[in-house]
Amino acid sequence: MNNQIIDIFRRVKAASRTLGSMSDNERSDVLMSLADAVDASHEVLLRANESDLERMERSNPLYDRLQLTPARLEAIASDIRHIAKLPSPVGEVIEERTLPNDLQLRRVRVPFGVVGVIYEARPNVTFDVFSLCFKSGNACLLKGGADASASNEAIVSLIHEVLRGKCIDCDVVALLPSTHEATAELLNAVGYVDVCIPRGGRRLIDFVRDNASVPVIETGAGVVSAYFDKDADLKIGIDIVTNAKTRRVSVCNALDTLLIHRERLSELPQLCSRLAEKNVEIHADEESLHILKGQYPAHLLKESDENTYSTEWMDYKMGLKTVGSVDEAIDHITRFGSGHSECIITDNPATGARFQNEVDAACVYVNAPTSFTDGGQFGLGAEIGISTQKLGPRGPMGLREICTYRYFINGNGQTRP
């Protein structure tokens, strides 16, 4: 084992215990100061980010995720202030009762302790993870990708500067080297790391799950579908499909597959009209391809293949599939979905309710785009990830989702017979 990395683990573990003695007001004050520091440090942060961007091709779908701009930094500062103002879940009494023997039992929300996060080219995640962890009383170990190394180093340096100014142990947050060795050490940091959360594509998530000795919460990978039902409103459908696909193509809640009821195929050119304006490449099955030929740019039309509907595109590309019923749509999602977010567009309340009850995903929408699957949009301030698993937290993970609980039992001398 790498002694330098193990020393980081030890220091972060020790620092995590100091967070328990801080009040929520003290933690909020630190985050408000961090938000002010972000506003005052645009030049430094953008310069570091530019050095990362210079090493990545603009055509890379991850370029948009990697890029920081003044507007994005302003949004990050706003998110940090929002988190600071949220009530902390730490100390919340989930359950309280008196047992027949007069023991007073309370189930109380407490931090995990040390949260490890492995993520790719998204420097905003560094701010999000620290803010959520700090507010909920957790220390964090960050393992960012090499693509964002300069940005992450500048961000953590800024966080440490704020912490020193408040006389708080800087080891409550640590950035590990952007190496494969550091990833392996983090995944096997038993006794130091209480939970590890991967944020990235399917390959990263699978690797972390398959190789970790510490507990893992799976997040992120999204093969996302929208089903345009036979009873759907066309205008609403156009708006939803366009927003879900093109708002930001590189994020996990972006639309990957459009399913359309066979009875509405004649309206498919209208449904996809604004996608053409955004140069979205459509990989279509035989029926929908036949309808779109001559009514959608030919250079953006492709035939679907065996990989189309299992692909998380993260690009201006989309699968298209014709189905004959809501049953077929649900069967398709069951086969190809990743449990992230799914959507139905319909004016039939019974069909919408059935879709929500039978589709097995963390977030299931009726007449709203999957682009809303986001911690900020759900009122969580930000998110540490979007869990696609069923055990433990599911969907966008905010403050409560990175806490566990303890039972506090108070007696007055009772003994067990």
List keywords for this structure.
single chain, 417 residues, alpha/beta, four-stranded parallel beta sheet, 15 helices, 16 strands, 18% strand
Characterise the protein shown here.
It is globular and about 75 Å long. Helix 2 runs antiparallel to helix 5 and helix 3 runs antiparallel to helix 7. Strands 10-9-11-8-7-12-13 form a seven-stranded parallel sheet, sandwiched between helices. The chain has a four-stranded parallel sheet with strand order 5-4-3-6, sandwiched between helices. It has 15 helices and 16 strands. The mean pLDDT is 94. Strand 1 and strand 2 form a beta hairpin. It is an alpha/beta fold.
**Low-confidence parts lasting 5 or more residues at pLDDT below 50?**
none
Structural class: alpha/beta
- The fraction of residues in strands falls at 15-25%
Q: What would the principal axes of the Cα set say about the shape?
A: globular
Strand order of the largest sheet: 10-9-11-8-7-12-13
Could you report the average pLDDT, rounded to the nearest whole number? 94
Largest sheet: 7 strands, parallel
- As a whole number of angstroms, the C-alpha radius of gyration is 24 Å
Tally of DSSP helical segments = 15
**Proportion in helices:** 25-40%
Record field, number of beta strands = 16
End-to-end Cα distance, whole Å, is 48 Å
How do you describe this structure in short?
The chain is α/β, with parallel strands linked by helices. Helix content is 39%, strand content 18%. It is globular and about 75 Å long.
